[in-house]
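Notes from the 1:1 (GR / supervisor)

We went over the backlog. Supervisor wanted to see one worked example end to end before approving the batch request, so GR pasted a single chain during the call. The sequence is below; no edits were made to it. Supervisor asked that the structure be written out right there so they could see what the output format looks like.
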Amino acid sequence: MKKGTGATRADVLEYAANQYGTQPEYLWADVPNYAVLRRTDTRKWYGIIMDVPRFRLGLPGDGVTDILDIKCDAFAREVLLDQPGFVPCYHLNKVHWIGVLLDGTADKDLVYQLIDDSYASVAPKSRRKRTD
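Structure output shown during the call:
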């Protein structure tokens, strides 16, 4: 994996497997290329990779493109939407998720950091000890 190059589907799947032991889950027969990335402890999704028609994302050209939808705080989302390779979330909550083009446009290191943030955001909630 070269530093500073753009992220692809293969890069994301390799990173998730190496970093978190995540194996993609292909849950739907009608969309066989949709891969869910889920924490093993909470079973919550921290990402989903989809192949989406370019026109649905407002992108020029024909065909489909791979995207990664990941959890992202609202402020970071607004900043990222001004950068190449980021689009509004395609299929999930538009405020707390963002779409990342996996066509080599979005910087790989930034995508990995966002995956880490998304993974952490769906971690088990810590239980606070009551002192009353």
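Supervisor's comment: Residues 108-121 form the longest helix (14 residues).
Batch request approved.
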